[in-house]
Amino acid sequence: xxxxxxxxxxxxxxxxxxxxTGPSGSPxxxxxxxxxIAALLLVVLAAVPLFVAxxxxxxxxxxxxxxxxxxxxxxxxxxxxxxxxGHAAYxxxxxxxxxxxxKHWTAAAPIPLVAAVVVAAFAAAATGxxxxxxxxxxxxxxxxxxxxxxxxxxxxxxxxxGGDNGLYGIPAVEVAGEPLVLVGYVYWYVLIFAVLGFAVxxxxxxxxxxxxxxxxxxxxxxxxxxGYSPFRYKLAGFVIAGAVAGLAGGLLAVQQQLVTPADLGFxxxxxxxxAVAVGGAGSLWGPAIGAAxxxxxxxxYGPDLDGHGTLVxxxxxxxxxxxxxxxxxxxxxxxxxxxxxxxxxxxDG
Amino acid sequence: MTEWFADNFIxxxxxxxxxxxxxxxxxxxxxVFGMMDVLNLGHGALYLIGAYVGFQFTGGISSWGGFLTxxxxxxxxxxxxxxxxxxxxxxxxxxGHLDQALLTLxxxxxxxxxxxxxxGDDVQNxxxxxxxxxxxxxxxxxxxxxxxxxxxxxxxxAIVVWLVIEKSSLGALIRASVSDREMVSSVGVxxxxxxxxxxxxxxxxxxxxxxxxxxxxxxxxxxxxTVLLLAxxxxxIGGLGSVRGALIGSLVIGQVESLGRANLPEFASxxxxxxxxxxxxxxxxxxxxxxxxxP
Lengths: 349, 295
What we know:
The complex is a heterodimer of chains A (about 350) and B (about 300).
Chain A: H1 32-51, H2 54-80, H3 88-104, H4 111-131, H5 136-156, H6 158-161, E1 167-168, E2 174-175, E3 178-179, H7 183-206, H8 208-218, H9 220-225, H10 230-256, E4 258-259, H11 266-279, H12 285-301, H13 309-323, H14 327-336
Antiparallel strand pairs in A: 1-4, 2-3
Chain B: H1 2-7, H2 9-36, H3 43-58, H4 64-89, H5 97-119, E1 135-138, E2 141-144, H6 145-167, H7 169-179, H8 181-186, H9 191-217, H10 223-238, H11 243-263, H12 268-282
Helix pairs in contact in B: 2-6, 2-7, 2-9, 2-10, 2-11, 3-4, 3-5, 3-9, 3-10, 4-9, 6-7, 10-11, 11-12
């Protein structure tokens, strides 16, 4: 995480392309179409602040942040088969860490983000050490409990976190000594690091390590008999996912300049899980689209619904479970790929 | 030791009251999960329905009529909601816990939002019925009579549930379903009916817990998440699908909550987590866990 200065350039397709990250573990041939879409999307995303007004730009920044959270959760849910209901905890740990570092020490980029990633990784390691021992539904409940308790910590440790009022007055991030005040610059800052985060998760999922995680998801006993230690692999996956969620949280602190206990609560975790399920677990790019959809409903249409965007999201949950078994990603891969359908059996929780 | 006991007498009683409430709440969740492998994250929302039914029918007025009506209405709501949830989760059987969790979570979100649209986001108080609406002397300590009654109700319900599950033929059917569903269906019992029955019964208890907990916790938004978390911790500690486990888990968590908040308010949340962590490290399937929930 120290090489943020050399961030990926636009012409490199770092956004995962459809079909390249099938959860079956076989990388397959990368479709040129996918590369093209990814590159095009990146160009469009980079150009947004030049053409779009402030409010939609900051909304898009929120979508990117939430998408990064959802993609990091997909590493757990889709790739490793560990459905976590407390993933927002590490998002929040990152957000509070970045906010506190920026407020009390330095707001110079990328120090708050690096701190967010490191502390979130430690938090994930400490709690994951316990959580990944459990299986199936126990994992779901343990992560839920961990998430709730970290949220309670953020509420009750008010000397540091500001309690229910949240941590406010986070200074704007400084690049080369100049604070980034304009919405467009903040957006680009978010975009650069979000793309970096996506790239990390994507690289992990395509590495032999990612293949081992899929193997553990599909048949843990066999992986163990092959000499792998499922505990270590799962813990490592958990820590990586937590660290990237922390990065997303650090970006949230930059974008909102405010962190509240709600940002790491159960609802945030549940919405991230919804984004993964709606988008299609295991595809990585699907959850990013799912996250954009969730933010669109909650933050863009929510205010028009008298603040009851959650009601619509609840209905989306229900509809998604019944009708979108493989998520948005499942809809598109049936067109791109022939032969037997993707085996996106959702992680058996 | 005696001195410590005397100092913490009120906290221990509070812990028993919380434990009673938790048992009523958690036993349904535990049975539904243990029996049918359905993780119902909407359980907290059922409690919330009960709490607001209690508020609706008693309001700020202390009356037995209102309180009993609220109990009856909440029971009816719970039964119907349980049946609906049972039918709704039927197509998801065999699709893993994540889908069930998402579905019931979606239902919980919708219920909580609808309640917040109807009743607003203010904290509402529910008043205990007359006679229980005051404090009485217990060994030289003043203590709310309602909480004592709650302990009594919890104890009675625990005995009733235990008798039904452990001693009746219906209970035998339920226990058989918990341990081997296929075998039960192969002797000609319709699993779906058993599931619907247990689901309805458990949901009814959750809604009743909402009414019963009203005079202690009131009715407010966000309560559903709080009680869901507590109930989950209870059944994870006690072991899924076990009545005895739910009872012991409730009593333990009640004391941890109450004594923790009284003596170490800063660390109360961590004691809860600590208890959970210790149990899961020592006994990964809970204190009285069966084989259900295996990977």
